[in-house]
Design goal:
Largest sheet: 7 strands, mixed
GO molecular function: ribose-5-phosphate isomerase activity
InterPro entries: NagB/RpiA_transferase-like, Ribose5P_isomerase_typA_subgr, Ribose5P_isomerase_type_A
Keywords: Isomerase
Helix content: 25-40%
Number of domains: 2
Bound molecules: ribose-5-phosphate
Strand order of the largest sheet: 2-1-3-6-14-15-16
Number of strands: 16
CATH class of the largest domain: Alpha Beta
Enzyme class: isomerase
Oligomer: single chain
Strand content: 25-35%
Protein name: Ribose-5-phosphate isomerase A
Distance between the termini: 14 Å
Structural class: alpha/beta
Radius of gyration: 18 Å
Length: 260
């Protein structure tokens, strides 16, 4: 390999590079947020620069917007384009039905809006994200700042009756302060251990007025591309009902590694 990528970064890169096979000139693409999505932005930027790929990106966070802009990917807003061809994003966990936990990076609300405005959503991940049952990763929920403590109490009540293993709730912080999302909300992280019924839990949480959105993505993701550190990728396509394997060459793309 041309750069000293850790196996986890190589896996993320492999998944992101494979996802680029689904991108065609002229497409409007939702650009995800996080360290895996950052690889996608680098790969797409390279295709724009070197292959003349013509795409318009709709970023799912201010961080991704800055990165895409700096990398030379033309970006616009969701309101400008309305509907997208494809969104490619990372995830914190994905189960066999491609139900996801997202929001580890705090961008779940914009990510869900962009993904649901897309014809297709592809999730790119390393193998650590693939789980049998969701819930080992704390479930982020975005809550309105006003009265967030009351919302936390109401969430605790819901959890006490839910099919989960643990019920601890923490307010996400950044630099010792409550974290504020791009949309001006707080995030509560729900440490549940195991989520037995994701759909029911999401519905109950969304019934609370202070809860804006949950990090549970249900029936949104169409394709999961899981990358391995040696360049192997597994492509699980729900629509096609197929699981296929492929390999991404690591090290052939010097420019992308130099751009790190
Ligand atoms: O809010 C952040 C997003 O949902 C990310 O896509 C998710 O946290 C995965 O991030 P990473 O690729 O850095 O593990």
């Amino acid at each position: 390999m041309s750069a000293n990528l850790s196996p986890i970064d190589a896996a993320k890169y492999a998944a992101a590079r494979k996802a680029c096979d689904y991108v065609e000139s002229g497409m409007k693409i939702g650009l995800g947020t996080g360290s895996t999505a950052a690889w996608l932005v680098r790969c797409l930027a390279e295709m724009v620069r070197e292959d003349g790929l013509k795409i318009t990106g709709v970023p799912t966070s201010s961080r991704t917007a800055e990165m895409a802009q700096a990398a030379g990917i033309p970006i616009t807003t969701l309101d400008e384009v309305g509907r997208l061809d494809l969104t490619i994003d990372g995830a914190d966990e994905a189960d066999g039905n491609l139900t996801l936990i997202k929001g580890g990076g705090g961008a779940l609300l914009q990510e869900k809006i962009v993904a649901t405005a897309s014809e297709r959503m592809i999730v790119i991940a390393d193998t650590t994200k693939r789980v049998e049952t969701l819930g080992a990763f704390p479930l982020p929920i975005e809550v309105v700042r006003f009265g967030w403590k009351s919302t936390r109490e109401a969430v605790a009540e819901i959890l006490s009756a839910a099919d989960v293993m643990d019920t601890k709730i923490t307010l996400r912080e950044a630099d010792g302060q409550p974290y504020v999302t791009d949309e001006g909300h707080h995030i509560l992280d729900l440490h549940l251990g195991r989520i037995g019924a994701p759909g029911r839990l999401a519905q109950s949480l969304l019934s609370l007025p202070g809860v804006v959105e949950t990090g549970l993505f249900i029936d949104i993701c169409d394709v999961l591309i899981t990358g391995h550190g040696d360049g192997r990728v597994e492509i699980r396509d729900l629509d096609a009902g197929t699981v296929t394997e492929d390999r991404v060459t690591l090290g052939a793309d010097d420019n992308i590694f130099r751009a790190l």
